[in-house]
Amino acid sequence: MRGLRQLVGVAGLGLALGAAGQPVTVSGVKYDESLELRGNKLQLNGAGTRYRAIIQVYAAGLYLPRKTTAAEEALAMPGAKRITVTMLRDIDSGELGRLFTRSVEDNMDKAAFSKLIPGLMRMSQLFTDIKKLSAGQSFSIDWVPGTGTIINVRGVPQGEPFREPEFFNAMLRIWLGPKPADHSLKEALLGKAGPASNPAQTMN
């Protein structure tokens, strides 16, 4: 195990999307098959659970204008997008913000990363100020064309939108980039993974 860095990742449980119109349930968290984000209709592309060893850390769902199984297509796709994360255990949100920054750096070249440092510092401070995310609490990262990236914690927008067009994709690469912390959740969010067994049932 890689300790704290794994908290950002994904592992474990990817569930196939349910029948049309039916919510998808991942580790007790329900994801509607579609939602509306500021007038933009989005579809659930995939959802999964992040495990640390045998411990469930969070469930995550990715919403896009249309479904795709290709990470680069998801990143390049025009229109509004959302990734939503629901905690399955209590976590230090300041630690989470720092890990996000490291994962963004892992998935970008140095020149591109350096341009986003001010926004990443603000994002990290935002999570530090929240102090703690408890089991059952959620946050989402939204891309709204013409507005920017909006981080919502417990359903409340945090501060001003991040205006840099590259910022949302940099955050999304935490899960979909070439070096995700775990490739299993990446596959689940891209709708590639069918029902998977709990790692706790297969680990010795």
TrEMBL record:
Database matches in SUPFAM superfamilies: Chalcone isomerase (SSF54626)
Sequence ranges assigned to domain Chalcone isomerase in this UniProt record: 25-191
InterPro entries named in the record: Chalcone_isomerase, Chalcone_isomerase_3-sand, Chalcone_isomerase_sf
Gene3D superfamilies: 3.50.70.10
Recorded GO MF terms: intramolecular lyase activity
Protein name from the UniProt record: Chalcone isomerase domain-containing protein
